[in-house]
């Protein structure tokens, strides 16, 4: 994030890597569901983890973050290989993944919005960029696995990401709060909202799928 | 289009927004066919509407248009939410959509070609860029909905877009006609060609699909 | 490749065009399997041929190669139309395609790695860029055809591309060998490895696909 208007505070840097690992694991588990081999695990895991940030950077005209920060790829490699080795022993609907992802989603949404505003985008564009950064990796993951992207069936995901981006913009750019405090509040609130959504979603899987 | 070699005349600016609305509606109707929720409607609608222009700008190295023009997103939001609310009362094969899309296709093809030439691309690259701008949004829409892109089964779409781009280049860059006149002629001719194609296509849906 | 750190030697320029033609043909054959029309042949063929290089250039911030080199599109057009005309007489699992593709894969992997290093990327990023350049076109081709990308089931493809990129980096950037010699050795070694992989793969098609 060396091109970011704001340097990411140390705590959030580690949160960023945790979110990355959760997304990489989600990609590897998707590869497991499709019975791919190690190459598929690594590729889908990497794409799931860095896809959203890549779209964000390309759309805004920033250099693509992972091409400057090799530790991103190292984490993806380690996580996806670990999942491959552990797959037979892993529940494919790992709950901890949902929670790590929920933390990361709020962070990606807020960082995406911040990067957009730093590139002189309007608030609505910034919210969209936040949603793309938070949801883009999962969308590409599902497209590669030949599924309809799961978030397109769960409004609560994109909507929560949008709410997080709106909250961050409100706190930092309208309210005048400092970067770190705005980030903490936005990420915490998004996480809480998503926690409700997870519990809600788990009880309503694909409820809306009905014949056309 | 502030980075465009040619400023878009006022009449075409409104035509551009109409085409955008038609594409957003096509995305929302695709979401309806897949029984998505409001989040899916908005996301697929936005991607269908701005996908082609985004590809065009990224490929040519322009700043991405919609990140500079927030009214694009506003229109997508309004249209997709309106379709969501109206869905039970809407015929999913709305004919007016085809006609609005036909108008927009010619415009996107010509603008795409013009932007490519302004970036010093060769005429063949300019025609390809025009086709990508005209067809890219629909292709991404169908990929997200886990369908084979519909235009890959209907030659008449991509071919008409290519013809429109060729005509524009011929009139403006070879024939020396001014920008606005070239645009009017190219868009009108593309619309007429597509009108024939629509009537033809409607009578031959998926005719070419036969066992391999 | 005018923005490339290294100008491509003449021999490799022709190899590059051969690889491009092989990829375009693979796209056209994929279109044939899905019973597309001439428009689908051309579009899927072009995307298969230039997709990997486009991703590479966009990720690294280079101008997109095919927008500067119109001969790329000419070759794609000629090849895809030729396949369309010849389709009924062509075995859809043409072996020569696999061999031409194997030559091209090594070249794309090495060039992708070289371009990344020239953009000051780390070796791990360079290897990833090489894999993306070598495999990206085929992945997009399969996504457009609504298939799970074939290389995600055949580790041996992405792994061979990665090995080729590693070898090139080792020879040129660590070993200090000159560009042309490094390229010849890396491409030859990748081809040999892939030749083994092809024979191995052909005897194990989709063997790993088993119920979850």
Briefly say what this structure is.
Chain A has seven helices and no strands. Chain A is mainly α and 212 residues long. Chains A and C meet through α1 and α2 of A and α2, α5 and α6 of C.
Beta fraction of chain A: under 5%
Class by helix and strand content of chain A?
A: mainly alpha
- Total helical segments of chain A: 7
> What Rg of chain A, in angstroms, do the CA atoms define?
17 Å
Poorly predicted ranges of chain A (pLDDT <50, ≥5 residues)?
A: 202-212
Number of strands of chain A: 0
| Outline of chain A | globular
Q: From the structure provided, what is the oligomeric state, counting identical versus distinct chains? A: homotrimer
Main interface by residue count: A-C, 29 and 34 residues
Number of domains of chain A: 1
* Fraction in helix of chain A: over 70%
Order of helices and strands of chain A: HHHHHHH
Distance between the termini of chain A: 44 Å
How do the strands and helices of this protein lay out in sequence?
The structure is a homotrimer of 212-residue chains.
Chain A: H1 10-33, H2 38-60, H3 71-86, H4 95-118, H5 123-144, H6 155-174, H7 179-202
Helix pairs in contact in A: 1-2, 1-3, 1-4, 1-5, 2-3, 2-4, 2-5, 4-5, 4-6, 4-7, 5-6, 6-7
